[in-house]
């Protein structure tokens, strides 16, 4: 950009125009004849495809950048948007610019078709890093998403990431072998096949039933809940597991072990998390916190627990 003495935005526009020109060579004649501006061409990039490129280039010929944006908006959402008007004195007709007259006469622009019900507007204010990452992903997905449209690229990525997160959180939908399901000696460990079975059985919602026999049904921050706690010998089997949201998981723990016990466990976890952020291993942090809390008087706060834990680590 420095060698060409271009700003970042100017360079991005030229790159986008060059990519469009590589996909649609017929654009060259419109640019050479000044029938469409560089800004206007870049404004069309999200709606151009092989089936409509000739028609849209003709409709955009001679339009200003704002008029091109209005044309694109109407094509994408199928709803007529208001055109810029010129104020006129009382009793006079407001004059129309030639560009506005072209847009107004355009059959796509004047369409009264309501937007499809499955379309919803989404407004995001994003930074430079987001734009750079999105452009890099669009390039990598050139074959998978040939249109290059941002909404199609984001949908592709969201679908792929959802599969990864779903498998990581609830296990693979493929049934696991019997040896794999029972291979861990950790009583708290829940095999992937068991997690998947419980998740599907509870339909991915909180199964806590409260007053009035009403089920919570929340889908946020779900956790696997042992019906008979592990501390009391409860196994990690589908029959002894259910799904609770974070709030009801905590409430059930208070019912099973008491409020004070739960507060102490939360204090220990917070202290261990703090030590992990300082660079200590999780197992080491939990062990030291367990020793520290035994040496402290009842009612000690997080600060005191951390100080004692660091003293033990330094000794």
Pattern of helices and strands: HHHHHHHHHHEEHHHH
Q: What distance separates the N and C termini? A: 57 Å
Number of helices: 14
Q: How many strand elements?
A: 2
How would you describe what is shown here?
It is a single chain. With 315 residues, this protein is mostly helical. It has 4 domains: 1-82 and 96-116, no CATH class; 126-170, no CATH class; 189-245, no CATH class; 260-314, Orthogonal Bundle (Helicase, Ruva Protein, domain 3), CATH 1.10.8. The chain is built from 14 helices and 2 strands, in the order H-H-H-H-H-H-H-H-H-H-E-E-H-H-H-H. The chain has helices spanning 8-23, 27-32, 38-43, 53-60, 65-77, 98-105, 128-140, 150-170, 178-181, 192-201, 246-257, 259-277, 282-295, 302-314, and strands at residues 222-226, 241-245. It has a two-stranded antiparallel sheet. Helix 8 (150-170) packs across helix 10 (192-201) and helix 12 crosses helix 13. The two termini are 57 Å apart. Mean pLDDT is 80; it is low at 79-105, 107-113 and 179-183.
Secondary-structure blueprint:
Blueprint: H1 8-23, H2 27-32, H3 38-43, H4 53-60, H5 65-77, H6 98-105, H7 128-140, H8 150-170, H9 178-181, H10 192-201, E1 222-226, E2 241-245, H11 246-257, H12 259-277, H13 282-295, H14 302-314
Antiparallel strand pairs: 1-2
Helix pairs in contact: 8-10, 11-12, 12-13, 12-14, 13-14
């Amino acid at each position: 950009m420095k060698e060409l003495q271009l700003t970042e935005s100017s360079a991005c526009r030229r790159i986008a125009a060059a990519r469009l020109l590589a996909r649609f060579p017929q654009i060259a004649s419109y640019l050479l004849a000044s029938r469409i501006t560089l800004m206007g061409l870049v404004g069309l990039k999200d709606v151009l495809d092989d089936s409509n490129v000739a028609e849209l280039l003709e409709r955009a010929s001679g339009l200003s950048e704002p008029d091109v944006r209005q044309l694109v908006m109407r094509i994408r959402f199928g709803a007529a948007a208001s055109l810029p008007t010129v104020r006129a004195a009382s009793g006079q007709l407001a004059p129309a610019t030639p560009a506005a007259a072209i847009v107004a006469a355009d059959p796509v622009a004047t369409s009264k078709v309501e937007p499809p019900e499955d379309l919803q507007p989404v407004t995001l204010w994003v930074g430079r890093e987001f734009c750079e990452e999105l452009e890099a992903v669009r390039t990598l997905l050139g074959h998978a998403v040939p249109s290059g449209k941002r909404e199609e690229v984001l949908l592709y990525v969201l679908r792929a990431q959802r599969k990864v997160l779903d498998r990581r959180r609830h296990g693979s939908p493929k049934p696991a072998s019997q040896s794999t399901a029972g291979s861990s000696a950790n009583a708290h460990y829940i095999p992937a096949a068991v997690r998947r079975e419980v998740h599907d059985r509870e339909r991915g919602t909180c199964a806590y039933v409260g007053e009035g026999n009403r089920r919570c049904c929340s889908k946020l921050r779900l956790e696997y809940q042992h019906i008979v706690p592990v501390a009391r010998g409860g196994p990690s089997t589908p029959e002894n597991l259910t799904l609770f949201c974070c709030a009801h998981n905590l409430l059930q723990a208070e019912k099973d072990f008491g409020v004070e016990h739960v507060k102490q466990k939360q204090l220990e976890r917070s202290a261990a998390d703090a030590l992990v952020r300082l660079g200590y291993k999780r197992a080491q942090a939990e062990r030291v916190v367990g020793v520290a809390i035994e040496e402290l008087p009842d009612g000690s706060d997080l600060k005191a627990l951390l100080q004692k834990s660091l003293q033990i680590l330094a000794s």
